[in-house]
Amino acid sequence: MWIKELKLKNYRNYRDTKAQFSSGLNIFIGKNAQGKTNFLEAIYFLSLTRSHRTRFDKELIYFNEKEALISGNIQRIDGQIPLEISLSDKGRVTKVNHLKQAKLSDYVGTMTVVLFAPEDLQLVKGAPSLRRKFMDIDLGQIKPVYLSDLSHYNYVLKQRNTYLKTAETIDYDFLTVLNEQLADYGSRVMNHRSDFINDLEKEADKHHQIISDGLERLRIKYASSFPFSNYSETYTAFVKHLQKNQTRDIAKRNTSIGPHRDDLEFFINDMNADFGSQGQHRSLILSLKMAEIELIKAVRGDNPILLLDDVMSELDNQRQMKLLQGIKENVQTFITTTSLEHLTSLPDNLKLFMIEEGQIKEEKDRSPKQ
């Protein structure tokens, strides 16, 4: 899979621009605050209908404009597909093959991406919400039904929390109904996640052993609110724990257990990775990103697009080499950077783009630029 062309209109600092890409490596070069990350973000947004930098769509629309448009032509093994997203104060409209999509799960997965950004280096020691977001984004691309189950879960969770906050007296029969609905969708979400983490651990451990020259093993644990093994057992345990925590939930006016509280734990040679070095954290994240590519390819039958947002300068020479070597053939890759001087062994199948003040121009000269 690769994106052949991207068109932007009133997106961030781009008024009206387009670019055609190589199916191999594409490098965006420019000084800071010129729009490199904005262009990469647009590719990410076209894939997932969300930004990795903001939750507010209005921030993506050019200053004083009312609408933005992102469109692209995607080449997949089953043919070419046009994608389009329009943003306005009325909301967003997503189209696949010029047809409007009513459900997020019908759109996401058409074009798959793996993003490696500087904030990913916080995945190990950062807030649990970062690790839940990591699971949600990857699983949503691999397994569209996950997005549907997660959406239903969040809807019931919001209902339950609102009821706990606003009810003057609790109707326990109604709360029981909410508990059962929450346990139903929550159990599905947890089982999806558990299966995904098991597969991710196997692939990530292989890459981590290579990066560490066989000195380290990587283990990933899905830290759920309570132990579980399959859907039926998870559902029963979920309902039981909701009932057990009911008095607490009523007093605190929120829901204390469920996938919205769950987390991931990483272990290097059976030691919690929180206590690992910065270099070990970088190797761990590299391993995860390479594993994501493998899993998406295995499930979807096509390689995802790899987006590297200003991370090469964050890696030492050895990890840069491991990353570039780990990129499989037929994986379209985009890199943002301020200079080529720290990039080595560049392939012939690449395109360079200079970005300055919201303008993008293909560059034929491959000599290092400051």
TrEMBL record:
This is DNA replication and repair protein RecF. PROSITE patterns: RECF_1 (PS00617), RECF_2 (PS00618). Its main location: cytoplasm. InterPro entries: DNA-binding_RecF, DNA-binding_RecF_CS, P-loop_NTPase, RecF/RecN/SMC_N, RecF_2. ATP binds at residues 30-37. Belongs to the RecF family. Keywords: ATP-binding, Cytoplasm, DNA damage, DNA repair, DNA replication, DNA-binding, Nucleotide-binding, SOS response. It comes from Streptococcus pantholopis. Residues 3-359 form the RecF/RecN/SMC N-terminal domain. CDD domains: ABC_RecF. GO terms for molecular function: ATP binding; single-stranded DNA binding. HAMAP family: RecF. The gene is recF. GO terms for cellular component: cytoplasm. The RecF protein is involved in DNA metabolism; it is required for DNA replication and normal SOS inducibility. RecF binds preferentially to single-stranded, linear DNA. It also seems to bind ATP.
